[in-house]
Amino acid sequence: MSFELTSNEVSRVEIAEFLGIRLDPIGHVDLSTIVILSTMYAIEFVALCYQLYHRNYPPLKVKNVPIMFSLYFGAVIWMLGDIFTSGLVHLAGSPVLRACRFTLIWCRISLGAYYVTSLFALRTYALYHVFYLGKAFTGRVVYLCFGTTIGSIFLFGIISTLVPGHMTVYYEDIMDMCYANHNYITAVLVVIWVVWGLIAWMTWTMRYVSFCFSEHVEILSSFSILFTIIILNTVCLLVITVYPASLVWRTILLYINHVGASVGYWVVMWVPTYNCMFHREEYLRYWVDTLKEVDMERQYEYSSLNREETTVLIEGMAPIDVYSTVETQISDLESFEQSRTRTSTTLESQSKVYETTKSA
Question: Which spans are transmembrane here (predicted)?
Fold first, then answer.
């Protein structure tokens, strides 16, 4: 896969010019974009493995690490779809890359942008379900919501694949690009905008809900970032004529999509991850004390987490069960009080006997 200005690439530029399209050749800027974004996701993968390993740490667990972890893989697939269909690489040399139904319908749309949008909507609904409706987001509700989300994604992809290519996406060998039918792209954007409308509605209804740990900031920040992403994609796909032909537009789109998605992710996960790594015990105690102070243990599922699973891990020592320790201390205190009472009673009795004997 060449990023040099070869004779074939010069011919492609000339053909595009003949067709009235200004085509910027594939070059080292495209290569640097691929390398930078791939490196970013590779570094994030290490941090995500750490999060998954420590997923039972309460401040991390309430962020729903499995859903956030799956968001990462959706973003990676989305990046691959963007690279293959945004004019950053040559498609002619690979039958897989020329299969635009795979790269565009599945990688970029279904398992990429639609998947990330749907999972973000699912996480927003989980917060809405717990904090606005006041119901636990566990058990059957989780499976039903997650199953509906994944089912809709695959249903969308399967239907798009079965529809004839001229109505959805196809490979144009003259330009060596994947093209999408305008009506199909409009339909895709309408679906994604409907999902974003639901997210906006849930976010708005939760504006007066009380949170403990800046979830309002997380929701609004992530929403704003990803909202910007979908606006830019809408402009590129519906307004800009053949945006993959423009080096500026395809580079901006890739960076906005994936740096933005990454920032949106870390707005949610940075604080608990950082504190789990460097201030594990101190932050956990602060977290627990804050929940108890505002009486929101139920909303954050703190009681079940701590009574059944959570232990405070002290470096170099065996795990200590917080509740067992507290209960033991209370029991010891009660025993001490009983012993002190018995001792006091005995001393009083002995004192009376002594006084009686002395008087006699």
Answer: 31-53, 65-92, 112-134, 141-163, 183-204, 225-246, 252-271
In this structure, is the dihedral angle defined by the CA atoms of residues 157, 161, 164 and 167, taken in order, positive or negative? positive
**What distance in Å separates the CA atoms of residue 44 and residue 91, rounded to the nearest whole number?**
28
pLDDT given for residue 126 in this prediction:
87
Whichever domain contains 276, its CATH number is 1.20.1070.10
Cβ atoms 267, 260 nearer than 8 A: no
From CA 209, how far away is CA 213, in angstroms rounded? 12
CA dihedral 82, 86, 89, 94 (to 10 degrees): 80
**CB-count burial class (<10 Å; 0-12, 13-18, 19+) for 36:** middle
Predicted confidence (pLDDT) per residue in 110-132, tens digit: 999 999 999 999 988 988 888 88
- Report the b/e string of 297-318 with b at 16+ CB within 10 A: eebbbbeebbeeebebeeeeee
Q: Looking at the 3D structure of the chain, how many domains does it have?
A: 1
Which H or E element spans position 169?
Answer: strand 169-172
